[in-house]
Fold this sequence. Notes:
Order of helices and strands: EHEHEHEHEHEEEH
Shape: globular
Largest sheet: 6 strands, mixed
Number of strands: 8
Helix content: 25-40%
Strand order of the largest sheet: 2-5-4-3-7-8
Radius of gyration: 17 Å
Low-confidence stretches: 1-11, 20-77, 222-229
Distance between the termini: 35 Å
Oligomer: single chain
Amino acid sequence: MLTTEHVEADPASPPVSRVRGVRRGTALALLLAACAALASCGGRAANDGAPSANAPSPGAPSAAAPGARAGGTNSAPSASSARLVPTDPHGILEGTRTGSKATLVNVWATWCGPCREEFPDLVRFARDYAPKGVKLMLVSADFDSTEARTFLASQGVDFESYFQTGDDMSFINGMDPRWTGSLPATFVYDAEGRRVDFWEGRADYAKFERSALAAMDGRAASPHEGDHR
């Protein structure tokens, strides 16, 4: 039976949106209905289950978006300005073996509140660490690629990003059997394409940086480094 899991909040755990074993179109409808009834998604507090005043909403320009023009002259984001190509776990693994010193793969969706909240830090990290040989692969789990492209454009993402294809459960298990399907989900690989770190839930710039540096040094992040608190 297709279901959407409601995850009770754990004070020691980062916020997540959880969907497992549900096709993306059905998942979106169920999540929106659950949010309306419970005032939260994935066990988040009432105000965290929906976009806040500080969190960019799909299709809306972000005040902190990279490349924003001064003086309030930003033009509306265009979905066509963000490159989004289909991929699967095999394609993602191949993408981690292209000469980068480390690769972060972040699976996200426009309907996922924690995903939107971490996005500015994620994009800033990518800008800062690309010259140092770190690659960011953004993989959208949206069922509507137009919404994903519009959101990426609003965040100033002008590099190639990806769109999940295939069966959800096959994608989840192909990435990592430990993955519950919660979003956002981040997978970290070293220069040889070996996965050295993985976590579910929202992270911040410091967490992305620590994990990338550990991968570049050829070591997995320690339990302390993986702590989101």
